[in-house]
Structure formats: C-alpha cells, structure tokens
Amino acid sequence: MKKIAVFTSGGDAPGMNACIRAVVRTSIFYGLEIYGISYGFDGMIKGGFKRMQSNSVSNIVQRGGTILKSARSEEFMTKEGRQKAYDQLKEHEIEGVVAIGGDGTFTGAKVFFEEFGIPIIGCPGTIDNDIYGTDYTIGFDTAVNTALEAIDKIRDTAAAHDRIFFVEVMGRDSGYIAVECGIGGGAEFVFVPETETDLKKVVKSLKSLRKSKSSSLIVVAEGDEEGTAEYIMEKVKGKLNDADKEFKVTTLGHIQRGGNPTARDRVLASRCGMAAVDGLIAGKSNCMAGVVNGDVIYTPFEDCIGKTKPLKEDHLKLIEILSI
Ligand SMILES: Nc1ncnc2c1ncn2[C@@H]1O[C@H](COP(=O)(O)OP(=O)(O)O)[C@@H](O)[C@H]1O
Ligand SMILES: O=P(O)(O)OC[C@H]1O[C@](O)(COP(=O)(O)O)[C@@H](O)[C@@H]1O
C-alpha cells in the first residue's frame, strides 16, 4: 500500500481534526502518501483530493470543526455516484481510505466496499455516541461538557426565580448526551428517545417535588418521542396547573457541536486515527476502529450500523434516585 486518503462526512464533531492529524502523521510515519478529500463522499465524486504533509495538520489538534469540511452527499446514494467516486480513487491511485463520520457514513462506506472492494476503515465521529463498537465516539465528551456548562448557568436562573426549566439537547435518535448532562447537571428528569416518556408520572412527581424544591430542571433529547422541549413544556404546564410557577425552555442547538475538543476527545480521536491506518496496513477493511474497555478494537461496519448500543440501565436509575 502506497497511497491512502482520509475524509470527514455527515456532520462535524469536535475532535475530527485531531483524528485527521493522527491519520496524516501515522501515514507519513509509515512512509505512505496521504491525501485529504474535501467535503466527504461528494468530494470523492468530484475529485477533491489534496496531498497532505505533516505541516498540513499543524496547529489543529485543539480546533473544532474539520479542516477537510463535511458534507452529506445525495449523489453517493446512487450507484452512478459511487462509480464516479471509485473512478476518482483509481485515477489518483488511492489504495485505502479512512472515513471519519457516523453510522450514515459507515453505511455508505460498507456499500462502497461491497461494490468496489476498496479497503476502507472508519473512525467514529459523532457527538451522539450512538455507534456500536466503541464506548465513546469522537465529539461526545466535548458536546456533553458544552451542554453541561450551559445547564449550570441555566440552573442559577432557575434557582433564583424558582422556575421549571426544560433544556433541549441534541440527540436525534439517541439519549446519551441528555443522560450524561442530566446526571452531571443534577436534572430532575431526563427524556430520551430510547425510553417511554410518561408525562403523567412526571406531573405527579413535580407536584410532590414542590414540597422540597423550589426549582426543577428537565433535560429533553431532541429526538424524544413525545416531541420537542417546547411542546413537552406546554403539556406539563397545562397538566400541572400551577399559576405561580414560571416555565421556561432553552434549546441548546448547534453550540453543542462546536468548540475546542476536550482532552478525552483529542486522545480518543488520535488513537482511532492511528488505529485506522494501522488497520489498513495490516489488511483490514470494511470495519471501524473504536475503543472498548480502554483497548482499540476493529468492529465490522455491519455491526456498527446494525447493532444498537443501549443506554446504561444504572445511568437511568441514577437520575431517578438522585432527583428526590
Ligand atoms: N445507504 C447508503 N448508501 C450510500 N451512501 C450512504 C448511505 N447512507 C448514507 N450514505 C452516505 O453517507 C453520508 C453521511 O450520512 P449521514 O447519515 O448524513 O451522516 P452520519 O455519518 O453523521 O450519520 C450521506 O450523505 C450519504 O452520502
Ligand atoms: O442540523 P444538522 O446539521 O442536521 O445536525 C443536527 C443533528 O446533528 C446531531 O448532533 C448529530 O451530529 P453528528 O453526528 O455530526 O455529531 C444530531 O443529534 C442532530 O439531530
């Protein structure tokens, strides 16, 4: 293997730059030529390849976003689009690819490998932490810390004014961010897509909590099956029927996906990046490099996509117990 390429795809997650840096420097360390592909699969189709040197990735380990840009590609969803991408890789004599992204990216990578046999290894880059085959995904720790900082500030206002606050955090299909913010931020309740949200029970608990607490904080994952934080707040407000209480909603939004990665994310990203290149050199493919129980492991894309990583039962129990 002489030439490999790396790209970021789907969204962006803090730590992607640290991962790119590790891929580039590990490749150079082993004497490989390394190319960066801009704008994910779209860039592959359009031939957006650029040779990278060690100094191409200087001073980025601490930066959020991705220097390779990120994109979602409709064209790659078609056989014709993937054929164009393959032709571009052939033209540039690329023999292996590192894909940094989430489960959508890995789904595309798996299809691509099955059709054209180009060796491809993934690194888990998503703030949602919803990928099987790694205890944590790159960006999750930073997103939780960003959301937690905001929640701490919101708590000050909630306490000062005796308010009930609903804070919406990211997580289209997953409650990992909500659960960790809920535990770390001392939330009274956390609503997540993985479990049924029982509003009747919540209203009952809020009524009884009124005796001991003057303010409450509820964290809602954006993908909760009951609806948005705004919608849930209106429903709870209607049922609680407490004219003296003020209800407020804060949606944290994309601030959770930006910012400098935490130490944990930088280290995880660097380990996964190095492991992806090691894996390609060792002849691995169609899999993701992740970290489980402290060790790097390679998990087939099929499992990363097909298997779910359930929320920890004891985390959910913790929230219930600590909120009394
Ligand atoms: N079934 C598929 N076939 C081919 N490409 C796919 C498929 N699913 C996803 N992709 C590609 O992966 C890209 C990123 O997926 P997306 O779900 O948007 O992000 P993420 O990787 O963060 O989950 C898509 O824009 C598309 O180009
Ligand atoms: O507005 P966008 O860019 O589609 O992103 C929103 C989505 O991004 C996510 O945070 C996931 O993003 P990443 O996979 O890139 O980390 C989801 O929880 C959220 O629904």
Protein model, in words:
Homotetramer. Its cofactor is Mg(2+). It catalyses: beta-D-fructose 6-phosphate + ATP = beta-D-fructose 1,6-bisphosphate + ADP + H(+). This is ATP-dependent 6-phosphofructokinase. The active site is at residue 128. This protein has helices at residues 16-29, 40-46, 79-91, 103-116, 140-161, 176-185, 199-209, 229-240, 263-281, 301-306, 313-322; strands at 3-8, 33-37, 49-52, 96-101, 120-124, 164-169, 189-191, 216-221, 247-251, 287-292, 295-300. With 324 residues, it is α/β, with parallel strands linked by helices. It folds into 2 domains: 3-139 and 261-306, Rossmann fold; 142-257, Rossmann fold (3-Layer(aba) Sandwich). The strands form 2 sheets. The protein has a 7-stranded mixed β-sheet, sandwiched between helices. A 4-stranded parallel β-sheet has the order 7-8-6-9, with helices on both faces. It is elongated and about 70 Å long. The termini are far apart. Adenosine-5'-diphosphate binds next to helix 4.
CA gyration radius, whole angstroms: 22 Å
Residue fraction in strands: 15-25%
Which molecules are bound besides the chains?
Answer: adenosine-5'-diphosphate, 1,6-di-O-phosphono-beta-D-fructofuranose
Question: How can the largest sheet be summarized?
Answer: 7 strands, mixed
Q: State mean pLDDT (0 to 100 scale).
A: 96
Helices and strands: which structural class? alpha/beta
Order of helices and strands: EHEHEHEHEHEHEHEHEHEEHH
Give the overall silhouette: elongated
- Major sheet strand order: 3-2-1-4-5-10-11
Helix content: 40-55%
Task: Just name the CATH architecture of the largest domain.
Answer: 3-Layer(aba) Sandwich
CATH fold-level name of the largest domain: Rossmann fold
CATH class category of the largest domain: Alpha Beta
The number of distinct helices, counting runs of at least 4 residues, comes to: 11
Cofactor: Mg(2+)
Enzyme class: transferase
Subcellular location: Cytoplasm
Keywords: Allosteric enzyme, ATP-binding, Cytoplasm, Glycolysis, Kinase, Magnesium, Metal-binding, Nucleotide-binding, Transferase
